[in-house]
What we know:
It is a single chain. By secondary structure, this protein is α+β, with helices and mostly antiparallel strands. The chain has 2 domains: about 5-145, Roll (Nuclear Transport Factor 2, Chain: A); about 175-330, Nuclear Transport Factor 2, Chain: A, CATH 3.10.450. Helices cover about 30% and strands about 35% of the residues. It has 9 helices and 15 strands. The chain has a 6-stranded mixed sheet. The protein is globular, with a radius of gyration of 19 Å. The model has no long low-confidence stretch (mean pLDDT about 95).
Amino acid sequence: MSYQAEKQVVHDYYTALDSTSGADMLDAVGKYVASDYLWRGYHPFGEMTSLGDVIAKFWVPLKSSFARLQRREDVFFAGKNVTENNDGTWVVSMGHLMGLFDVPWLSIRPTRKMAFLRYAEFHRVEGGKICETAFYFDIPHLMIQAGQNPFPPQTGAHMVQPGPMPHDALLYDDAPVEEGQKTMAAIETMIGDLGQWQLGLPLEEELARTWHDDMIWWGPAGIGATYTIERYAKQHSGPFRAAFKERSKTNHIARVAEGHYGGFFGWPNFTARHAGGFMGMPGNSERLEFRVIDIYRREGDKLIENWIFIDFLHVMHQQGLDVLGRMQGIEG
Length: 332
């Protein structure tokens, strides 16, 4: 099984996107994107169905704010979607967009220093065109770099997150099929254990079924990164499960793996009710949506690294807190 054609489309799209700016961008990248394109992005962008809108509303303002923007890619792989959607091949990229943060973006005050926007992106490629994109980027992570943290102190560590420990995740050449199958099996076993938090085992025992003891969970800003099962249970998983109730069934739009790497995204992945206390927010009776991208590295038959993108601005917005709107108030 080869993903070379699909990978080449995304590679060419990135080359065109990263080397142009302003009005030239649409012409440069249009040849790689289908006319019925669907783009899903981090709040406040949401869904767009026009490449022109994506360029005008996201890329042009971002490139106007970040001088000499460059892509620093840590993960690149592809795979067949194994969800019930069964809608072909998706190409995945993860890393950072780095530039000189010289002009305000989304009312975030610039630093005139290097800044990193961590991202993960899924592209569905069909007929030589990108038909669908999920693009999650950690805006609060950028806000913290700029000294404008919108959240109370987080339980994990804040840092510019590195790529995989073996530095082997740029799969421009196709990996052996059987390795991707092993990775997907590990991911699906973990998803099955997670379920609706009703496996019945003590949390650390549950995690040890599918995770190495020295796992690293590279969490989003507002939670942070945490290392080892014991610290992950204390610094994220335990507090998160305590704060949210009635978790729905997990739902993914795409779930793919290649080699030792795999991932998924949903829109949303699941819903749950907030009992209160998470990230300083009060509880409410509404079901909250969680839009998430997860990227995994497998070692042996267990998972060992996990990069997570959760649209917390969307979560907060559902609870009545407009984080970016509040920033605009400060600016005014």
